């Protein structure tokens, strides 16, 4: 359990950092196109982290024990 | 009286689990179409233009929702390891943070200075409204599984309702990951 929780906490910190970076980037960057692209990359990255580590999408095609 | 066929009665539990998971992911897919269309409408109608919104409030409710995903993850991980006490607190924290997020959206609605007749106003109220309705239904589902947890219903080998409710909560979080920059940060 400790390992799973550690992984979750690391992902949570990355998500928090990405959210802050996203905000600072959007508030301070003037070029609309680059800002839009940067925000899109950040959103896709955050979504991928949540879908993989929190929603365990890989379990869909993995044979495992019952819940 | 319904008779259960022997083959059905002895179907391995993990088959049911795989079906449950596949069904939930199909549901997420159909929901993604809905939210994707809302995002498309937002950029089609307004481009990257937007009205002024309370930036700190937007950032605050975003962090609250991300934090609730962490507590939901904690609850699921805890019950996977038969730690009911931690699962209990994880679910309580998730529900509380969900209520806080919904209250934040409600407050944002109350101070939003643009009118619902404007294109951005319509998009803002529709997107945040549909998302908030998912948050509120998610809170309801979490309360239901929390009550069942208190009754001792779940174990490490049988906790699909918690896993499913938590996955739904994470999905709601993923949607906000896209809605937040689209509504608050572009332009």
Describe this structure in words.
In chain A, helix 1 (2-28) runs antiparallel to helix 2. Chain A has one domain (2-61). With 67 residues, chain A is mainly α. Chain A has helices at 2-28, 32-54. Chain B has 187 residues and is mostly helical. Helices cover 80% and strands 0% of the residues of chain B. Chain B is built from 6 helices and no strands. Chain B is elongated and about 50 Å long. The mean pLDDT of chain B is 89. At the A-B interface, helix 1 and helix 2 of A face helix 2, helix 3 and helix 6 of B.
Biggest sheet architecture of chain B: none
Q: Tell me the number of structural domains of chain B.
A: 1
* Largest interface chains and counts: A-B, 35 and 43 residues
Euclidean distance between termini CA atoms of chain B: 63 Å
Distance between the termini of chain A: 16 Å
What is the H/E order of chain A?
Answer: HH
Any idea what the radius of gyration of chain B is? 19 Å
Task: Supply database-style keywords.
heterodimer, A: 67 residues, mainly alpha, 0% strand, elongated, B: 187 residues, Four Helix Bundle (Hemerythrin (Met), subunit A)
Chain-wise SSE layout:
The complex is a heterodimer of chains A (67) and B (187).
Chain A: H1 2-28, H2 32-54
Chain B: H1 6-9, H2 13-46, H3 55-80, H4 84-111, H5 119-150, H6 160-185
Give me a quick take on this structure:
The complex is a heterodimer of chains A (67) and B (187). Chain A contains two helices and no strands.
């Amino acid at each position: 359990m400790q390992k799973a929780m550690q992984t979750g906490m690391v992902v949570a910190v990355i998500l928090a950092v990405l959210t802050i970076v996203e905000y600072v980037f959007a508030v301070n960057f003037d070029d609309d196109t680059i800002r839009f692209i940067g925000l899109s990359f950040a959103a896709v990255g955050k979504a991928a982290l949540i879908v993989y580590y929190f929603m365990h999408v890989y379990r869909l095609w993995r044979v495992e024990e019952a819940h | 009286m319904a008779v259960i066929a022997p083959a059905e009665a002895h179907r391995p539990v993990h088959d049911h689990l795989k079906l449950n998971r596949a069904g939930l992911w199909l549901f997420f897919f159909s929901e993604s179409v809905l939210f994707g269309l809302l995002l498309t409408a937002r950029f089609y109608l307004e481009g990257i233009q937007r009205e002024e919104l309370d930036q700190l409030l937007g950032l605050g409710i975003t962090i609250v929702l991300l934090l609730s995903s962490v507590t939901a993850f904690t609850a699921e991980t805890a019950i996977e390891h038969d730690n009911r006490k931690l699962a209990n607190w994880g679910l309580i924290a998730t529900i509380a943070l969900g209520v806080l997020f919904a209250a934040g959206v409600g407050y944002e609605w109350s101070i939003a200075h643009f009118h619902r007749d404007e294109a951005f106003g319509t998009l803002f109220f529709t997107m945040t409204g549909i998302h908030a309705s998912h948050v509120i239904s998610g809170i309801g589902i979490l309360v239901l599984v929390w009550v069942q947890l208190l009754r001792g219903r779940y174990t490490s080998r049988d906790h699909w309702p918690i896993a499913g409710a938590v996955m739904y909560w994470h999905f709601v979080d993923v949607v906000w990951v896209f809605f937040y920059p689209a509504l608050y940060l572009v332009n």
